[in-house]
Amino acid sequence: MQGNEEIFLDPGSCAMAFRLLRKNGYAISSDCLAEFEKKEIFYHSSSANSAHESDTKSILELYKASQMKILQNEPVLDRIYDWTSIFLRDQLVKGLIENKSLYAEVNFALGHPYANLDRLETRSYIDNYNPLLKTSYRSSNIDNRDLLTIASQDFKMCQALHREELDYLDRWVKEYKLDTLKFARQRTAYGFITIAAILSDPQHSDVRTPWAQNTALLTIIDDFFDYDGSMEELHNLIDLFHKWDDHLTIGFKSEKVEIIFNAFYGTINELAAKARLQQGRCVRSHLINLWILVMKNMLKEAEWARYNLVPTMYEYLAAGHVTIGLGVVLLIPLYFMGSQLSEDVIASQEYNSIYLHVSIIGRLLNDSATVKRESAEGKLNGVSLLMEHGRGAVDEETSMKEVERLIESHKRELLRLIVDKKEGSVVPKSCKDLFWGLSKVLHLTYMDDDGFTSPVKMVNAADVIVNQPILLTP
Known about the structure:
Layout: H1 5-9, H2 11-23, H3 53-65, H4 75-93, H5 100-111, H6 118-132, H7 144-175, H8 188-196, H9 205-228, H10 231-243, H11 255-279, H12 284-306, H13 313-323, H14 326-334, H15 343-347, H16 349-376, H17 382-389, H18 396-419, H19 429-445, H20 456-467
Helix pairs in contact: 2-3, 3-4, 4-5, 5-6, 6-7, 7-8, 7-9, 8-9, 8-20, 9-11, 9-12, 9-14, 10-11, 10-12, 12-13, 12-14, 13-16, 16-18, 16-19, 17-18, 18-19
């Protein structure tokens, strides 16, 4: 920030400094990277067609830095992202990166744009650090073997804890008979991975468990409202939530409704009791009302689909950013992050703006990944909705580009709110960081398809984070 010449002479150092400073809320301009806008600066001769290894490392840092856009117009970062992503991909395809560890790091970064989940990245570093111990890239003042051993022991300890947490979740599913709901996707483990991948610290077990529980419950009612429940059953479920402790006065329209409601009733009451110990106030009514809001909007979407109604894009996003369910998945864990969240904080414009941006990102990423499948099922989707309102003048490619533009706009605003250190901010940093981690999870989940419907990526992530042993070379 003081313009140190030594930092600015080295592209990799400058890019890393920019990324870390901006990530931690410092007001640093992207103009500091302006001299690296073009790849020609890395060529050591006019005939060169590839960069030296040290240059590739610097270009990788520039690629990472270019993803830290927080302003409406940052052409420097746009141009750096364009050329670095093309250059690095070309290096991989042509086999020009000979160092296996560097190859793996570049491959990981390109394969997870905006989805570089902390635990997956950590595991990648550990696995790729083994061969580095035998190369010239060793630190002169650190015993690298000890560093690797400590990192590996930490990862193994977390793996053991995660297996215990998954065992608890399996018992929870069976206790409430959720596994008997044959219409529903059973995705409890995948829901758990989405939080374990960004928040693995042992002290945050009370955060991971409710996150996974609420993700599982959200998936079940999403399937119930989309495919299995009759309109009578859907209204019955919402009425039961309104009655809550007096739910027996209206009864259950089916066994499925009874199983679903009992799972919600027992789980929310238990989590609210734990949250009261952390927060010093009762949050149960707020949690119940959040779920009612989700289900009312799911009901609205069900009516659109069943009666062939076409909402405006505004109406669609107004409902869709709620039904993606991030409010219920994220809020309860936030109560266990160690920070006091008063009613004023949860009701603040800052909190709700962060929630709105991450929710719209989630909805539109979902729509982009699932447009073909959902269109075939006759289900509303933001991409197909833009095409329909275009009355033939908008094709799928144009619609997808508009959705991508919207995602990019909301992502930029979300990051700005996350890193902003302005006076008057009421949302704790730990909570903001969890929101940002969630946005990265969303990018991984919907990178190719809906990760909860076609869960290959989630299975692989679960294996790496929870089960796959770490094998150190002698």
